Amino acid sequence: LAAFVNAWYRQGLFKTLAAHPRWRDGAIVSRRVSGGGGGDACELADALSALSPGRQPLLSGAHLAGISARGAGLLLLAGSEDAKFVSTARAMAQQARDASEGGVSSAEGAPLLVETGAAEEPEVVVVPGAGHAVHLEAPEALVLPLLRFLRRCP
Predict the structure, then answer these.
(1) What is the pLDDT, as a whole number, of residue 113?
(2) CA-to-CA dists, residue 73 to 77, 80, 87, 91, 123, angstroms
């Protein structure tokens, strides 16, 4: 397990996390291996398999606009050093805007039920200096955007 976790966090995706003062001493690897965050190899394999982006359902513009239209809006977060996810967040926000401008409908074309008033503008928060693991690299930077978002929730 230790060899796998070490190799996992050496991927380019986690370059900023590995260099972060909180984690560069190997603390994240120690935590993962010791059981403080997935010390069981089978549980870790199950989590990685289930959470793989390729296994997640595709959220299209209509789905995103439907989420946004339910009252709280849509909050998309990414670290500035994770170009792929910044681009994805911006594209998802634009898809939600485009779909809501054309009338919110499902993938099958049927209108989606909107439980509360008009859709909030989708919000993209790009956290400066953070990479793929924003929640670990810059948790403080997430507090205000999350509080603003949660206060809007019905």
Answers:
(1) 32
(2) 13, 22, 19, 16, 8
* pLDDT score at 14: 85
The total of other beta-carbon atoms located within 10 Å of residue 84's CB is: 11
Quote the pLDDT of residue 134. 92
- 53 alpha-carbon distance from chain centroid: 10
Q: What is the pLDDT of residue 114?
A: 32
Residue 101 DSSP one-character state: H
Residues with pLDDT less than 50, the chain: 38, 104-118
In three-state secondary structure terms, 124 is: strand
Say what the pTM is.
0.73
Beta partners for residue 79, in sequence order: 127
Residue 110, classed as helix, strand or coil, is: coil
Collapsing DSSP states into helix, strand and coil, what is residue 77?
Answer: strand
Pairing of strands 123-127, 75-79: parallel
Three-state SS at 129:
coil
C-alpha–C-alpha distance, residues 127 and 102, integer Å: 30
